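Open question from group meeting: does this chain pack into something compact, or does most of it stay loose? Before anyone orders reagents, we agreed to write out a predicted structure and look at it together. Recording both the input and the output here so the notebook holds the full record.
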Amino acid sequence: MNSGNLEELKPLVTKRDDANYSQVSGYIPKDLALRLKIACATQEITQSEALENAIAYWLDEGERVAAEKAKSKRKSSQEK
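Structure tokens returned:
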């Protein structure tokens, strides 16, 4: 290996080392964990990516539903 190649090698920055990321954990049933592993392997994504996508979707959907409920509640109180 020549010295030019050493300059090209950069340390791998992982999400663990990234201040913009936080580790979360929990327990799920084994069959669900296996399904997650299979789906991630099939889609060629990491479990971390899958969890990030699933949590973001779940939170976004919850916010959407809450906004719809609030809108419906305002509408029904205006009709009274």
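Observations to bring back to the group:
The radius of gyration is 22 Å.
The mean pLDDT is 89.
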